[in-house]
Design goal:
Chain B: This is serine--tRNA ligase. The structure is a homodimer. Chain A is of the alpha+beta class and about 450 residues long. Chain A contains twelve helices and 13 strands. The termini of chain A are far apart. The interface between A and B is large, with 51 and 51 residues. β5 of chain A pairs antiparallel with β4 of chain B, so a sheet runs across the interface.
């Protein structure tokens, strides 16, 4: 019996669907027996939940985009349509399913490979069936062109009608199947570079260390105290005006931010990057296509009321979107951009982690490098990017280490990720200066604000 | 009821007390409601107006001053969009896909030009004793309202954040005005002069049909804003100082512009007086507003709760020998645009274009662009 799920329009965007394997495979009307269950976590926001009779798969990192539009009316099952389609190579996934399965496990992803493969198979079969029926319908049409007895003609007309109905149903089923396949397959994380260590954060490998912690012969202060004494920031006024984790920069801190941005842009431009400033409000679909979750629980993304727009958490998003849906001439590659923007992050779910002062804020300036290149060259450009970062941070006299992040820490889009952790004497530990955004070909250049805090730590604390 | 009473008298008083208490509760509730309604209605009353302000609409605005004259071109000129396209300075098409109309990417020298404009402007205004700031761009909607804007109005200019009481700022005037919210400032601290750099976000709802081409009307832009809090007697004087700073800045860049004393119909609720600067934009073939300097007197400070205590208070000793503090007064606030990047780019590109397609960079900006003297067409 099909399980019907009625959903109010407003909940669709945050809906995470789980499907269970289809029990019967022989029937044409396979979708009639396919139940869908809702993520239990969502039910708590709405009316009384019914415990679904089947196990529920909960998606975290890899939940795909789903549209707000209500599903087709023709079947008992409400299928949610993906808002956009990723160009996924299903055949490759099927032909390399062992490697894909291992990768999913190493990445701690919730992607359901079995389901993807089943759906893909069913889709291929359904496609064949549709083509077969189309062939028969054409035959009938051709036969009807000749001279026929009325009874024969009538029989053909009947047959044609039946074929047309069956075809319509199958074609609708095919569309739904394709949508479901999209949704499931979008969850599959990127492949992993063979040299990436397997495990969690503590498995990350040290690539390189530059400099050493400065020895202080006097008691040192952290950046908040220094900032207070030098009248460089105001968190209290910002808490009144905006809320916690907001701040004003004042006096020399403003000049320092300007100097960092200008110097960084200049240095990176020297290395052949095109400078950009970008929109900071973008369509949520672009955010999703870059691998972020605007509507996920604990999302980092601010959304604009009454619109499909969001604030960017990094310039990676609007820069990635520049060449959206286009074919670039190979001779134009590599395309190297260095983008300056403000970034906005909700930092939901960051409570308890390091949040003091400038370390974790809702709004900050950042200069970001972004490269589009030929497939064979991305490893090489990854090395080039980390080298640029190393040069920049050394020039400023910082002490830092570069880590090759382990599989559990990569996030869905990254094939490989290098993190730079700089020594912060006031915090008495290394902490991530260039967080995240190491996607394939996309490492960041500079976290301008964290470089302010590091500079303040290192120069003024010592 | 504290004295000695007969039981029947006491009972009568208890009754009376109870009746009074009920009546009082009702009246007190009515009073609260009345105060609320009074607040709501009274908040609509606009600021007073400076006696010299012309009465009427935009065409009644009075010309205060004109600086320079329109450049004569001896070759066919282009507008900023065409210049930008040929010099590969912006991309509106990609931004329309990624974000929507009226968004844009700046590229190449336009990025350096924005940086130079911001840096030069901050430096120049700091020289005149202003404290530089960067500000939050997400603020509580109540602060937006206290500055005299309408986050929830029809055709509001304000973007709101979903599931929160927060909004995006349309100008740094808002977060800067909020710094001293609900506080009493020492008179000796005045005037407080801030120059703030921020990104600004505006919905531009209701702007359809008006000039919207290219960089002239956009949803997001960089701006350097001046903001002064001062004693009541000094706001007119600081208003003159602010417009003088703007005049100096824009003249240094070689722009031709006029300064208007805006008429009453164009002031908006908070402004006591408003000077607009309109610069000549040859590609648009007209003057376009590049800046605005407003004296809001105590309109914003009454809402933001910013007071100062006059220091020359007559100290009177009361019977108990205590010194009375002088009553606090509301500060006056003023705000003025030091540099709004997109329209400044329009002015620079259109006014300084050359026949060969290049654009000359004004001298004051060159040191802030690594010495670059002009933007040249790139040969591919």
């Amino acid at each position: 019996m099909a399980l019907q799920c009625r959903l109010s329009g407003a909940t669709f965007q945050s809906l995470k669907l789980a499907t269970i394997p289809i029990s019967s495979s022989s029937s044409r009307f396979i979708f009639r027996t396919l139940p869908k269950t809702l993520n239990l976590a969502l039910f708590s926001r709405h009316s009384a939940p019914k415990a679904p009779p089947f196990s529920v798969l909960i998606r975290n990192l890899s939940a795909p985009a789903v549209a707000a539009a209500p599903a087709a009316e023709t079947s008992d099952i409400k299928v949610v349509k993906p808002q956009w389609n990723a160009a996924i190579d299903f055949k490759w996934i099927r032909d390399n399913k062992e490697a894909v399965a291992v990768n999913i496990k190493n990445r701690n992803s919730n992607a359901n490979l079995e389901l993807v493969l089943q759906l893909y198979d069913k889709m291929l079969n359904l496609q064949k069936e549709v083509e077969r029926l189309r062939g028969e319908r054409n035959n009938v049409a051709n036969k009807m062109k000749g001279k026929l007895e009325p009874s024969e003609r009538q029989k053909l007309i009947e047959e044609g009608k039946n074929l047309k109905e069956a075809l319509t149903t199958l074609e609708e089923d095919l569309v739904k199947l394709r949508d479901e396949l999209q949704i499931e397959a979008q969850c599959i994380p990127n492949l992993t570079h063979p040299d990436v260590p397997i495990g969690w954060e503590d498995s990350s490998k040290l690539r390189n260390m530059v400099g050493s912690p400065r020895k202080f012969d006097f008691p040192i202060k952290d950046h908040l105290q220094i900032g207070k004494e030098l009248d460089l920031f105001d968190f209290d006024a910002a808490a009144e005006v905006s809320g916690s984790k907001f701040y004003y920069l004042k006096n020399e801190a403003v000049m320092l931010e300007m100097a960092l941005v200008n110097w960084t842009l200049t240095e990176v431009m020297k290395r052949g990057f095109t400078p950009l400033t970008t929109p900071e409000i973008v369509r949520s679909s672009v955010v999703e296509k870059c691998g972020f979750q605007p509507r996920g629980e604990n999302t980092q993304v601010y959304s604009i009321e009454d619109s499909d727009q969001c604030l960017i958490g990094t310039a990676e998003i609007p820069v990635g979107g520049i060449h959206m849906d286009s074919i670039v001439a190979e001779s134009a590659l590599p395309l190297k951009y260095v983008a300056f923007s403000h970034c906005f992050r909700t930092e939901a779910g960051a409570a308890g982690t390091a949040t003091r002062g400038l370390y974790r804020v809702h709004q900050f300036s950042k200069v970001e490098m972004f490269i589009l290149c030929r497939q064979e060259e991305s490893d090489m450009y990854h090395e080039k990017l980390i080298k640029i970062e190393e040069d920049l941070f050394s020039s400023l006299g910082l002490h830092f280490k570069i880590l090759d992040m382990a599989t559990g820490d990569l996030g869905s889009p990254a094939y490989r990720k290098f993190d730079v952790e700089a020594w912060m004497p006031g915090l008495e530990r290394y902490d991530i200066k260039c967080i995240e955004l190491y996607r394939l070909s996309e490492p960041p250049a500079w976290h301008s604000l964290s470089s302010i805090r590091i500079t303040l730590n290192n120069f003024q604390e010592g």
